[in-house]
Design brief:
It contains three helices and twelve strands. By secondary structure, it is mainly beta. Strands 3-4-5-6-7-8-9-10 form an eight-stranded antiparallel barrel. It has a two-stranded antiparallel ribbon with strand order 1-2. Pfam families: Lipocalin (PF00061).
Length: 248
C-alpha cells in the first residue's frame, strides 16, 4: 500500500532531557557554534550554509508505524531555502514511492530558539518541533523531531548527507546516539538507495517542475503525469499535498 499513516505527517519534537549533553558524532571538519536550547539541549542554528539539497540517509524513531513499514522507505532528497517571510524556511522533499517520483513543499516557522522550527497541520491535528542538533554544513546534519498528535507522541532522529553516502564512522555514531536517546535497536534503519541511474532520472524529472511563486503551493495540476523517455524508474510525478518535511 502507498505509504501513508499516523506518522507520515511527522517527526519533529521538543528535545527530551535524556539527550542533554549527548553528542557522539565524529568531530566535524568545521564545527558550528552550538546554542543551548529547550531542556538544555544543544542545537545548531540554521544558516545560509544549511540551505540547499540534502539526502536523507538514516532514521531512528519511536513511531511504531514507521517501524512496521521501514522496508518500504527509500532515500529521498530535502531542499532547504528561505521561506516566503523572514520567520520561515521553505522545504521541498522528493522521493520515489511505488515507482512514482513525489514532491512535497511546505514551510516551517522559526522560533526564538536558534535551530528550532515548528509546524502544525490542522487537518491531522499534528504539531511538530524540529531541532538541528549538529551539522558541519558541507557533509552531514542530524535533526531531532518530536511529534504530538491524536495517535500519541513520537520521537524521530534523522541523519542527512550532502551526498547519498556518508562515512561509516558517522553512520555508527548516529546509531549509537539513537540508542542513547531510547530509540529501540529495531527502529533504527538506513534508507534504501534505489540506485544511481534511477536517482538521476527521478530527481531530474521532479526538479524540472516549474517553481511555484513565493509563498504558494505547487498544485497537482501543475505537475505533468506522463512517462519519461526511458520508461523506467519514474513513470510520473505526483504531489502529496501539504505535508511535514524533514521526513518521509
Amino acid at each position: 500500500p502507498r505509504l501513508s499513516g499516523p506518522c507520515t505527517l511527522h517527526h519533529h519534537l521538543p528535545v527530551s532531557p535524556c539527550i542533554r549533553n549527548i553528542w557522539t558524532l565524529h568531530k566535524p571538519r568545521r564545527c558550528p557554534t552550538l546554542v543551548r536550547g529547550a531542556h538544555g539541549a544543544n542545537v545548531s542554528p540554521i544558516s545560509l550554509q544549511m540551505y540547499g539539497k540534502w539526502f536523507d540517509i538514516a532514521i531512528g524513531t519511536t513511531c511504531k508505524w514507521m517501524k512496521n513499514y521501514k522496508e518500504k522507505f527509500s532515500m529521498g532528497t530535502l531542499v532547504l531555502g528561505p521561506g516566503p517571510s523572514t520567520d520561515q524556511i521553505s522545504t521541498t522533499s522528493t522521493r520515489l514511492r511505488q515507482g512514482d517520483c513525489t514532491l512535497v513543499s511546505g514551510e516551517y516557522q522559526k522560533t526564538s530558539t536558534p535551530g528550532k522550527y515548528t509546524y502544525y497541520n490542522p487537518r491531522w491535528d499534528v504539531s511538530i518541533q524540529s531541532y538541528v542538533l549538529r551539522t558541519n554544513y558541507d557533509e552531514y546534519a542530524v535533526i531531532l523531531m518530536k511529534k504530538k498528535s491524536s495517535f500519541g507522541p513520537s520521537t524521530t532522529l534523522k541523519l542527512y548527507g550532502r551526498s547519498p553516502e556518508l562515512r561509516e564512522d558517522l553512520m555508527e555514531s548516529f546509531h549509537q546516539l539513537a540508542l542513547e536517546m531510547g530509540i529501540p535497536e529495531d527502529s533504527i534503519f538506513i534508507l534504501a538507495n534505489r540506485g544511481n541511474l534511477l536517482w538521476g532520472m527521478c530527481l531530474s524529472c521532479c526538479q524540472s517542475t516549474p517553481a511555484a511563486p513565493s509563498g504558494s503551493w505547487i498544485k497537482a495540476r501543475d505537475i505533468p503525469s506522463k512517462p519519461n523517455s526511458l520508461k523506467i524508474g519514474c513513470p510520473g510525478r505526483r504531489l502529496h499535498g501539504q505535508n511535514m518535511l524533514f521526513g518521509q
